[in-house]
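Two records follow; treat each independently.
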Amino acid sequence: MKYIYVDPSSTVRGDGSLAHPFRSMDEVIASGVTHPVTVSIKRGTRFYWSYLSQNLLAFFLNRSGTQSVLTSYGEGAWPIWFPKDAATRHTDTIFQNFNINSLQLSSPPGEQHTGGYLYGTVRGDENGVCNLEIHHINFIGDPAAISGSAPTKEVACIHLAVRDKTNIAHKVFIHDIYGDHINCGIFFRGNPNLSDPATYYGDQRKSYGVRILDVSFTNIVNYGVLLSGAASKNKSRDVRGDEWESGWDNIYYSSYRTNVYNPVKDPQAWTTARADVPLWMTMCAYATGQNFEVHGSGPAAPDRYALDLDYHCNNCLLRWGYLTNNAKPFMLVQGPFSNSWYNANGYKPLSTDTYTLYHTYGVGCVDNVIEYIVSYNDGVARTQRTSDIYWKKACCFRYCYNNVVRNCLFIDTVSQANDHVLYCNPRKEDNPAATALTLENCIFYWKHRDNSDLISPEHVSKFGSLLTKYAFKNCIFFSEAWPADAPAALPGVSTSDLHYVDPKFRFTVPLVPPAGMKEAKNILQLAIDSPALKTGSANTSPDIWGRTGNNIGWQQ
């Protein structure tokens, strides 16, 4: 391993040694550096550098057997790395066998940042291993940096994708990341191209071991984590301990930027709309997202749900989450093949029959689970409309099959009416007997809701018997404002063992949500005489306290 040092504050050109460091990263590159190498930049300094090269001899493409490193040295704050200018990325290159850590990346102060931070192509070696680790990095912008972010411009902190149609890039480990005043967080897309064109199921050329751990984003405008084209080799669900699993663990997301939703300039929450979600997956198999908080996520149409399992996801799991100040918790969605990446890249449908294509061949959103999540809507970021088709507690759209939402808690302290528990769009051409979504062991709790419909009358009229594709089992519904007579059972959908009773929490449900997951765990516990105790169906997966059982709600 060769060691090279860089001191951007030095005025004399050196040879890259600790005693006589280079003055810039450009001098490092010009020196003809070979791998493996550790390049260390002096702390307490700042420098401008953009590295843009998709050449196979690029600096960050390391074919040696030892991982190279870009880091910092000395005392003081991490060095601040600025791009060449606000319209240019810090990097846009090829990454392989590299460790990048202990740096601060910032946009030029006072300027709208349109370039982006760490962008690049991830590339696997002859064994399909990329071996890229990015950790202990701060991405720090300012209000000017995100002034033009919404609605469509994406400027990510980390944006990685496999470009080659046949290359596979396993093991990309991103952890201990902080971002503030940024547009987008972390995007990863493995190789969506099929190695077995006879099915859309299976690992195909997806990336194993894409792990995103211990990340915090504040003053963020758009997505926090977007994971695409990832799979898990061992299917252990141990994202933190198994280096071949894919997913995220311990994510904090806080967004109140009026770039996304400005109630004065945009009272209808429409003109700043974008198809985006704080935490979402697409084209993933057996990926796991767990231990996360999402504070403020919208409500701009058409999406802005807090969580999303999107196109072509199967056997994915989202669990142990706390969502606040958002009117829309989660969605599972599969649009038409004609709108898919596969269609845009020359793939043809394997069947003309809808159910065969989306379920049997796996194009759809299939066999996913969302469990042990609290969604707390206290009205922040709501529009002033009296009715809006987007204020729904659960969304399951188009070609979805056998998905389960269980042991979740929905609390709403602002809605009085025009708030429904389901948003769906079943298709006549699909199999009417195939269950799309089952909500099981869930609690729906309102402070002010009147006795109006839990299912939209428009849904009942429009979809008729197709609503039986959506099932509610062992759920509790309650509003503090309901009269003695509970509302009628949910019309149209499949139901069993529904209860219209007070779930009886240990403490009074506050109008505003607890500050974080820790506080929610203390406040939103069930009372010892709660009718939710031991009245649900058994869930063998542990809750956030590590317990299993047959309670209704998020606490076993």
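The next record belongs to a different protein.
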Amino acid sequence: MHDNAQSENQNNAEPDAKYSQLDPTPDDYALTPFADRCILTIEAGSGGHGCVSFVREKYIEEGPPNGGDGGSGGNVYIQAVRGETSLHKLARRRLMKAGRGRNGQGKMRGGERGADVLITVPVGTIVREIQRHDPFETAEREHEEAERTGQMDLPGEEGGKGSYRKDKWLVFPGTVPTELNRMVFPRLPPPRRSHLAALQPEAPMWLDLDKHMETPMLIAAGSMGGLGNPHFVTSNHSRPKMATRGDEGMKISLQLELKLLADLGLVGLPNVGKSTLLRALSNSRARIGNWAFTTLQPNVGTVVLDNHKGRPAVLRRGTDGELRENFTIADVPGLIEDAHLDRGLGLGFLRHVERAAVLAFVIDLSAGDAVAALKLLWKEVSEYEALRERELNADTERRMVTYRPANSETRRKGTSERLESPVMNPSIEELPYLTSTDISSKPWFVVATKADLPGTQAVYQDLQMYIRQINNGEQPHPSGRKNAWKRNVQSIPVSAIKAEGVEILPQLVMDLLDE
């Protein structure tokens, strides 16, 4: 008797445990940090300083110089890897700086290289350069200008004579100012760049990291270390008491943006059950509530197709030929009427819609006319698409190459015959949003939620009839665009809170991803 009661209690507890994941309390959720755009400053490592040192041995009163060269700075690499879904970690850091090279030491010991930095980003990230400061290019221009104007000594003169520059030279410790004034400094060596710089992308940087990368990509090579005092030995100066400082590392400001947020994007009005559907399909703990705008940022969940414990739920191969073990779903915040006019943060939410490969329009059958709700969603998406096209055309005209003739100051210097080269608009304002596939041309389907409630069957039949007319060409596409995707659009009735009808969605999504 007691055993039967205990088993009955366990059976009653199982449904409650099952539905607690799909119908939790408002405070039972996990807020996953998310960012799909960020500004990141990277800084390559500066070089270590050269060493001023001399041989110190018994019976050698004034030994020859033996200072080592400084180590080169660390490099900055980037790598797109599977499993990353957000840029929020980089958005928090804002600055990624490689290590500085160690200074040279006596006995001709060179300094160690600086520590490298690896930036990991999600697959589908676009990297665009905003601003760059390269000390090597500045030093190279100064060197060429000095040679052109004759401010440097003749190259045939041994050693050449230069002046003391505190930002370039290091002198022997303990050198007093009077001795410093009498010292003869050689001509500064020409600027040097690491041979690894040949592997960097050309400036301005624009990278489309749309595939998983097995090896990182170099984006900023470390600077060269300074030269030790043996480099400045001449016939007249056998014991130079100076060495050069290491070069400063380059700084690059980058804008990182996710081109593809997820494989499937859930689009719908507020409070239609998108977050519940995400919970039913994945192990996500998105916040669920009976008020509008419960979701204010995309929640990304992962649907596992193969847990390696038996036959996969769906057998599909990706573009790389490997079996797909999962796909991602983005729960996009709810859209309202006039969202394309930025009502209810509409522009920010609509931007996430175009980052999904496949769209699922989530319609609440208990809210009334499902056809009108679907048309409203497509209207906002279509208006946003038209707005983006106008912005793109205006931005293209604004970023035209402008020509500037030489100014009067340049003409006074005797270089009037050389005109300035055309330059791009030097504004470093935020870059425009990425252009991607038109939203209306993406594969899509309809998920009709709350189909278990009474009175929703007739509403779903009207929705099903409307979609059938779209497939047959009897009704135009809801977006009103000619090249819109309308090949075998499907509607799936589900009860997300009971996890009923959702089992066929992974198969449908994988079929659409293949297209």
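Discussion point: The longest strand covers residues 125-133. How would you locate this feature using only the token line?
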